[in-house]
């Protein structure tokens, strides 16, 4: 069974397919257009943001013999195919996390004195470069100071602070940003339609948020979700798989507190206890919703959300009826309870006592017909 996981199947084939890194792509394209291709590059950013993918694309463009454009590989010539199949003799791709010793890096760098076997350039792609030892960095530095014209170095890292400044100063430094949720949602929408998977747009919002800016993570999560949901991705199934709280559940908890309805509050918590949801989320979700209410109250023009949604209408009503000082008290009490939760006999007791404490903040009751 020749099955390809989504992360590999939909890996960008050229720079135009890369999402979320326009500043990186523009820098690389201009390097080719101006014929000013640096000897050494550092790609820095969190995992799953496209560092290794772009490094391989750069390797292809540098060695392609039949370019469509000056900065676009053809993917049909021998060099392009060999790089895609990971059998190109002039591409040295190593994981520094497993090769940290000076002997490993010396063995690699010993190959630099020989001219390329097949391509125009020899490419040294060192992933997790921050894992190299001090002596390995010193050996690498000597090469970076005066590399041969046919050698290019691409150093990839998630921890730039661990790389010596002497190395950084000899490289073009490119910072890969987290992909924003809107771009991730659009990307998933496109892929799932092409894969002919049924989905609810609200489920994609949850997946995008959970992935925290990582394309690789969101594709892996989506693949897991396809299997879990039997190719019918819904909001509720996504919440169940991830063990996440629906913000509307948490909003009901906040409303019960504002209404000073302790019985309703405990019943809502009991429903959550009967699920597989991690209880730590309750305080975190409440804090996020309180943040939304405060921002909506103090800086309404900054608040970016669908203003026709029930969620918006509800928190707007809260923002109009509860003053800022009271909201700050709620926030501080929840934050303190979250910090001290480990001191309670168990998490349920800590959550309940903290939330019941909020009932004693003085304000007028708010009438919520919907909830």
UniProtKB/TrEMBL annotation:
<dbReference type="Pfam" id="PF12169">
    <property type="entry name" value="DNA_pol3_gamma3"/>
</dbReference>
<dbReference type="GO" id="GO:0005524">
    <property type="term" value="F:ATP binding"/>
</dbReference>
<dbReference type="InterPro" id="IPR045085">
    <property type="entry name" value="HLD_clamp_pol_III_gamma_tau"/>
</dbReference>
<comment type="subunit">
    <text>DNA polymerase III contains a core (composed of alpha, epsilon and theta chains) that associates with a tau subunit. This core dimerizes to form the POLIII' complex. PolIII' associates with the gamma complex (composed of gamma, delta, delta', psi and chi chains) and with the beta chain to form the complete DNA polymerase III complex.</text>
</comment>
<dbReference type="InterPro" id="IPR022754">
    <property type="entry name" value="DNA_pol_III_gamma-3"/>
</dbReference>
<dbReference type="Pfam" id="PF22608">
    <property type="entry name" value="DNAX_ATPase_lid"/>
</dbReference>
<keyword id="KW-0235">DNA replication</keyword>
<dbReference type="InterPro" id="IPR027417">
    <property type="entry name" value="P-loop_NTPase"/>
</dbReference>
<keyword id="KW-0239">DNA-directed DNA polymerase</keyword>
<dbReference type="InterPro" id="IPR050238">
    <property type="entry name" value="DNA_Rep/Repair_Clamp_Loader"/>
</dbReference>
<keyword id="KW-0862">Zinc</keyword>
<dbReference type="Pfam" id="PF13177">
    <property type="entry name" value="DNA_pol3_delta2"/>
</dbReference>
<keyword id="KW-0547">Nucleotide-binding</keyword>
<dbReference type="GO" id="GO:0046872">
    <property type="term" value="F:metal ion binding"/>
</dbReference>
<comment type="similarity">
    <text>Belongs to the DnaX/STICHEL family.</text>
</comment>
<dbReference type="GO" id="GO:0009360">
    <property type="term" value="C:DNA polymerase III complex"/>
</dbReference>
<comment type="function">
    <text>DNA polymerase III is a complex, multichain enzyme responsible for most of the replicative synthesis in bacteria. This DNA polymerase also exhibits 3' to 5' exonuclease activity.</text>
</comment>
<dbReference type="InterPro" id="IPR008921">
    <property type="entry name" value="DNA_pol3_clamp-load_cplx_C"/>
</dbReference>
<dbReference type="InterPro" id="IPR003593">
    <property type="entry name" value="AAA+_ATPase"/>
</dbReference>
<keyword id="KW-0479">Metal-binding</keyword>
<dbReference type="InterPro" id="IPR012763">
    <property type="entry name" value="DNA_pol_III_sug/sutau_N"/>
</dbReference>
<keyword id="KW-0067">ATP-binding</keyword>
<feature type="domain" description="AAA+ ATPase">
    <location>
        <begin position="37"/>
        <end position="188"/>
    </location>
</feature>
<keyword id="KW-0808">Transferase</keyword>
<dbReference type="GO" id="GO:0003887">
    <property type="term" value="F:DNA-directed DNA polymerase activity"/>
</dbReference>
<dbReference type="GO" id="GO:0003677">
    <property type="term" value="F:DNA binding"/>
</dbReference>
<dbReference type="GO" id="GO:0006261">
    <property type="term" value="P:DNA-templated DNA replication"/>
</dbReference>
<keyword id="KW-0548">Nucleotidyltransferase</keyword>
<protein>
    <recommendedName>
        <fullName>DNA polymerase III subunit gamma/tau</fullName>
        <ecNumber>2.7.7.7</ecNumber>
    </recommendedName>
</protein>
């Amino acid at each position: 069974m020749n099955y390809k996981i989504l992360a590999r199947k939909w890996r960008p084939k050229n720079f135009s397919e890369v999402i979320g890194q326009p500043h990186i792509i523009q820098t690389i394209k201009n390097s080719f257009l101006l014929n000013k291709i640096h000897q050494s590059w550092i790609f820095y950013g969190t995992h799953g943001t496209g560092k290794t993918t772009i490094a391989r694309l750069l390797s292809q463009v540098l060695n392609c013999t039949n370019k469509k454009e000056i900065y676009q590989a053809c993917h049909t010539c021998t060099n392009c195919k060999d790089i895609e199949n990971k059998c190109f003799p002039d591409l040295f791709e190593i994981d520094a996390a497993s090769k940290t010793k000076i002997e490993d890096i010396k063995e690699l760098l010993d190959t630099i004195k020989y001219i390329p076997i097949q391509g125009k350039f020899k490419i040294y792609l060192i992933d997790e470069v921050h894992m190299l030892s001090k002596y390995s960095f010193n050996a690498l530095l000597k090469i970076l100071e005066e590399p041969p014209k046919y050698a290019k170095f691409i150093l990839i890292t998630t921890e730039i602070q661990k790389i010596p400044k002497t190395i950084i100063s000899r490289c073009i430094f490119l910072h890969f940003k987290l992909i924003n949720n809107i771009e991730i949602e659009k990307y998933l929408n496109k892929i799932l339609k092409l894969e002919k998977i049924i989905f609810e747009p609200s489920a994609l919002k949850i997946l995008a948020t959970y992935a925290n800016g990582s394309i690789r993570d969101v594709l892996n999560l989506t693949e897991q979700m396809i299997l879990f949901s039997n190719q019918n991705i819904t909001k509720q199934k996504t919440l169940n798989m991830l063990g996440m709280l629906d913000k509307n559940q948490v909003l009901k908890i906040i409303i019960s507190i504002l209404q000073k309805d302790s019985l309703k509050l405990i019943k809502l918590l009991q429903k959550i206890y009967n699920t597989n949801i991690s209880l730590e989320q309750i305080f975190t979700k409440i804090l996020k919703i309180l943040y939304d209410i405060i921002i909506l109250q103090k800086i309404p023009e900054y608040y970016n959300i669908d203003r026709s949604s029930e969620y918006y209408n509800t928190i707007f009503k809260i923002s109009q009826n509860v003053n800022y000082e009271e909201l700050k008290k709620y926030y501080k009490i929840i934050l303190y309870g979250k910090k001290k939760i480990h001191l309670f006999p168990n998490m349920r007791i800590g959550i309940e006592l903290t939330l019941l404490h909020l009932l004693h903040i003085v304000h007028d009751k708010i009438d919520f017909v919907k909830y």
